[in-house]
Design brief:
- With about 190 residues, the chain is mainly beta.
- The protein has one domain.
- Helices cover about 0% and strands about 65% of the residues.
- The strands form 2 sheets. Strands 1, 4, 5, 6, 7, 8, 9, 10, 11, 12 and 13 form an 11-stranded antiparallel β-sheet that branches.
Length: about 190
């Protein structure tokens, strides 16, 4: 299995709405779903400097490794999607990026296309190689998979509470909305 995908981030934190943050993509990955339900994948990830405001991005091209490890069973799915990025260029007066995330996913089937669970994304920002800022959310939400025309879609809404966040600025809570199309890869 070889997959290429990308996603843009849109987050609602408290009363503020963030738009046009940097776009990150899993450029390419290779993996397999075993008969036992074990899911694994390894690959490369990239972040492109597309933020509309300097406060929403690092203004750097970034590359790094990515890996997925999970378990798919009739009762649901659980696992993690790890990514790490290092900056390739340094904006004037800035530091090269050195950040990582681990999207933890735990979804339990309720029947009829409904699920309950979450997919928080803890983030680590390795500042100057010695200090680390952590952003750790706890998520709980519901999801419904349905078919619109011929395309299966999964709609998700999750509440987030941030257990840890940077001292200077960071959300206390948030709401996460997601609409994911399920498309067949051409290969």
């Amino acid at each position: 299995m070889c997959t290429v995908f990308s996603h843009e981030k849109l987050a609602v934190y408290g009363r503020a709405l963030e738009f046009c943050a940097e776009v990150d993509s899993l450029v390419a990955n290779w993996g397999k779903v075993q008969k036992s339900g074990l899911l694994w994948s390894i690959g490369a990830t990239a972040i492109f400097p597309t933020a509309s405001d300097a406060a929403l991005g690092k203004d750097q091209w970034q590359l790094g490794p990515a890996a997925i490890l999970g378990l798919i069973k009739p009762w649901g799915v659980l696992g993690g999607f790890w990514q790490h990025w290092w900056g390739l260029n340094t904006p004037s007066g800035g530091e090269k990026a050195n950040t990582g995330t681990l999207q933890i996913f735990y979804w339990f089937s309720l029947g009829g296309g409904w699920q309950i669970g979450g997919s928080p994304i803890p983030t680590a920002n390795y500042i100057s190689g010695s200090d680390v800022n952590f952003l750790v959310p706890l998520n709980l939400g519901v999801a419904k998979t349905f078919i619109l025309g011929k395309i299966p879609l999964k709609a998700t809404v999750q509440g987030q509470y941030f257990v840890t966040r940077p001292d200077i600025v960071g959300p206390d809570w948030g709401i996460f909305f997601q609409l994911t199309p399920v498309v067949q890869v051409p290969w």
